[in-house]
Design goal:
By secondary structure, the chain is α+β, with helices and mostly antiparallel strands. The protein folds into 2 domains: about 1-115 and about 250-260, Diaminopimelate Epimerase, Chain A, domain 1 (Roll), CATH 3.10.310.10; about 120-245, Roll (Diaminopimelate Epimerase, Chain A, domain 1). It has 6 helices and 18 strands. It has an 18-stranded mixed β-sheet that branches.
Length: about 260
């Protein structure tokens, strides 16, 4: 077992989204996986082990397993390439709860081939408006998340959620986004996930599986740049791909290798 910490969706240390990456020789009990994720205490830790010519990958928050995570997948791929578990000229297949995810190097970035995800438009509700102190331009929802568009970038930056109020919502995961006025980016977002033990996630690949098709339709583009405006912040290059998929591209930086001394 080797355990690393990696900053994902950034090319600078101490920014982007930190993830744990645990490279295993074989499966270990899920109870131990959850304890390791809780000990690392990042929003997600990826657990990876070889399976035939592919790798099985699972993602755990300090509280529970999740079925898809972008930044921890990017972090895991970065470790496999940089430490030469995998040839950088070849793609990696991750077997996951969300199906097979293909990852490859493209230029100086790593490209994730992820599913496009969607919400259905709904009426706004009092919990969302009060908890974020917003008046949505659009609000959509599926059985996992809300996607909310607001008008003001300044308002997006100033949001301080009422997490106690959000606990009364049935989902507990919220993407909030605005059209960008910044020349480098097409849209800007923040992501709050108290329902899975993550008050605010710094840079969220899965959120961009929703944001890319949403903004592609609004902006008439197939390739866009999203900026996630957390305290750490980071950028994700997004491109619509065939078969209802989306390419998410970004960089990563290895920060530490943790040497487990327990037995």
């Amino acid at each position: 077992m080797r355990i690393f910490t990696v900053d994902a969706f950034t090319d600078r240390p101490f920014s982007g989204n930190p993830a744990g990456v645990c490279i295993l020789d074989n499966e270990i009990p899920e109870e131990l996986i959850q304890l390791i994720a809780r000990e690392i205490n990042y929003s997600e830790t990826a657990f990876v082990f070889p399976q035939n010519d592919s790798y099985k990958i699972q993602w755990f928050t300090p509280k529970m397993e999740v079925n898809l995570c972008g930044h921890a997948t990017l972090a895991a791929a970065h470790i496999l390439y940089e430490l030469q578990y995998c040839d950088s000229s070849e793609s990696i297949e991750f077997i996951s709860a969300s199906g097979t995810l293909t990852v490859r190097k493209t230029g100086d970035k790593i490209e994730l081939n992820f599913p496009r995800l969607f919400v259905d438009e709904i009426e706004s509700n009092e919990i969302v408006e009060k908890a974020f102190d917003i008046r949505p331009l659009y609000i959509g929802k599926n059985d996992n998340r809300y996607l909310i568009e607001i008008e003001s970038y300044e308002k997006l930056l100033s949001i301080q959620p009422d997490f106690e109020l959000l606990k009364s919502d049935d989902l507990g995961r919220f993407i909030i986004t605005v059209k960008s006025d910044l020349p480098k980016y097409d849209f800007i977002s923040r992501y709050f996930a108290p329902g899975v033990g993550v008050p605010e996630d710094p840079v969220t690949g899965t959120a961009h599986c929703y944001l890319a098709p949403y903004w592609a339709k609004k902006l008439g583009k197939t390739k866009m740049y999203g900026f996630q405006a957390s305290a750490r912040s980071g950028c994700i290059e997004c491109e619509l791909a065939p078969d209802n998929r989306v390419f998410l591209r970004g960089n990563a930086v290895i920060m530490h290798e943790i040497f487990p001394l327990w037995k």
